[in-house]
Design goal:
Elements: H1 7-21, H2 25-37, H3 41-66, H4 71-75, H5 80-97, H6 99-112, H7 121-140, H8 146-171, H9 191-200, H10 204-221, H11 227-258, H12 269-281, H13 285-315, H14 322-337, H15 341-368, H16 376-396, H17 400-403, H18 406-418, H19 429-456
Helix pairs in contact: 1-8, 1-10, 1-11, 2-3, 2-9, 2-11, 2-12, 3-9, 3-10, 3-11, 3-15, 5-13, 5-15, 6-7, 6-12, 6-13, 6-14, 7-13, 7-14, 8-13, 10-11, 10-13, 12-13, 13-14, 15-16, 16-18, 16-19
Subcellular location: Cell membrane
Function: Component of the transport system for branched-chain amino acids.
Pfam family, one: Branch_AA_trans
């Protein structure tokens, strides 16, 4: 049977995937990158798109190609205990601990707080987050309609708001040439590497492993049954979504760079967007910005609650059902969101520096694993060496109040001296390659030993 989706369905699934990926953080970080990179923006764009688009789409493809039931099945190729640990860590990070709460605090900080007077910021945030998560739960408790909710309704509304800003910005650029815009100190050299690290902040590589199962299930709901058809269609939808994301990222980053012709470097991307929106739309700019941020985060939060709930149902089959998990994650996210955006970002960075190397290596192993029969030796050795290096990355990114201890300082000093590329944020690269080489040798030796036993027998 020849199973194939129509291009209309591919577009809907790609729109859904784009909608779940593209939250307000995906606007804040690239626009600020554009301001900071200045005339070195092109290598920075390349680095950002590599980790902000390329790795996430590969992660979705890895889940689609695995033929399993999501991230835990893929991670179990290391071993079952690691699969449970990594899956829980990843989903809690992109779920109720960091990413979902950020989905509420970012639109509040960008678009709602400037319009509120006469109410304490804490009470205003609580009221906004309560309404925000009530809407999220309305959609999340109906997961079968996620393609319709996110792909056909919320994403187009978001694109109308964002498109209006981008269209005006490029029709009336603040500067005619970006060649004379001086880059900040961080981007004077190594702009490509800096762009790669900025892509971490989107959390999209981890989200790709999480969202992959939603895409697979959507393919099944659209009538696909065989693993081959699901994998092929998942990759096609992922590539289409990646193209859309890359074009929008390119425009947002360049918009940020062009804004340096009028504004000084902003404290963060939210301030930069506020400046740009106000410049083009005047007093109405705050409403445009509120629409961009709110709809961007609303659709992403729905996707995250849905994927987290479905995964925890599968991980703990004797535990709560989908609706209970969704309510738990929604309630926890509501509470953490009221801690505030700054605290969420500060404590998320060390966790991201720990999880991202493990996410990237698992994704790549999932894609090329067929060449070594998905050997546990290779998966295990790569993960073991990457895990050790990732602990050093976590320590290096700890908040000041935690990083000042003698133990942490000595460990970071050791890694700085002995781990190649550690200072640039890529201390895991060489250990991962060493683990890969050792794993391949062990796989080959084990395979040859098995073949020899069979021949002798």
């Amino acid at each position: 049977m020849n199973e194939k989706l129509s291009w209309k369905n591919y577009l809907f699934v790609a729109s859904m995937l784009f909608g779940m990926f593209f939250g307000a953080g995906n606007i804040i970080f690239p626009v600020h990158l554009g301001q900071a990179a200045g005339s070195n923006v092109w290598p920075a764009i390349a680095g950002f798109i590599l980790t902000g688009v390329g790795i996430p789409i590969l992660a979705v493809a890895a889940i689609g190609m695995s033929g399993g039931n999501g991230l835990q099945d893929l991670a179990s190729r290391v071993n079952k205990k690691y699969a449970m640990f990594f899956t829980c860590m990843l989903y809690l990070t992109i779920g109720p601990c960091f990413a979902i709460p950020r989905c509420a605090t970012v639109p509040f900080s960008m678009g709602i707080a400037p319009m509120i007077t006469g109410v304490s910021p804490e009470m205003a945030l609580f009221g906004f987050s309560l309404v925000f998560f009530a809407i999220v739960m309305f959609f999340s408790l109906r997961p079968s309609g996620i393609v319709t909710w996110v792909g056909k309704i919320l994403t187009p509304i978001f694109l109308v708001f964002l498109g209006s800003l981008l269209l005006v910005a490029f029709a009336n650029p603040m500067v005619n040439s970006i060649a004379n815009i001086a880059p900040s100190a961080d981007y004077e050299s190594g702009a490509f590497a800096k762009g790669i690290l900025e892509g971490y902040n989107t959390m999209d590589a981890m989200a790709g492993l999480a969202f992959g199962i939603i895409v697979v299930n959507s393919m099944k709901n659209l009538g696909l049954r065989t693993n081959e058809a699901i994998a092929s269609s998942t990759i096609k939808a992922g590539v289409l979504s990646g193209i859309i994301m890359s074009v929008i990222y390119l425009m947002i980053i360049l918009m940020g760079t062009m804004s340096m012709g009028v504004f000084p470097m902003a404290e963060n991307g939210g301030v930069a967007l506020s400046d740009i929106s106000g410049f083009y739309f005047g007093a109405a700019g705050v409403f445009v910005l509120a629409g961009i941020a709110t709809f961007a985060c609303l659709k992403t939060a729905i996707g995250l609650v849905t994927s987290c709930s479905e995964t925890f149902c599968e991980m703990f089959p004797g535990g709560p059902g989908y609706r209970t998990w969704a309510c738990i994650f929604g309630a926890v996210s509501l509470l953490i969101s009221n801690v505030g955006l700054t605290a969420i970002i500060v404590y998320a960075i060390p966790v991201l520096m720990f999880l991202y190397p493990l996410t990237i290596t698992l994704t790549l192993l999932g894609l090329v694993g067929g060449h070594f029969n998905h050997s546990k030796w290779v998966y295990g050795m790569v993960t073991f060496f990457t895990l050790i290096a990732a602990v050093f990355d976590l320590m290096n990114a700890l908040p000041k109040e935690l990083a000042g201890s003698a133990f942490v300082s000595s460990m970071v000093g050791f890694a700085t001296e002995y781990l190649p590329f550690f200072a640039q944020g890529f201390g895991w690269l060489v250990p991962a390659m060493v683990g890969f080489a050792i794993g391949l040798v062990m796989y080959k030796v084990k395979g040859e030993c098995s073949n020899h036993k069979v021949a002798v027998g």
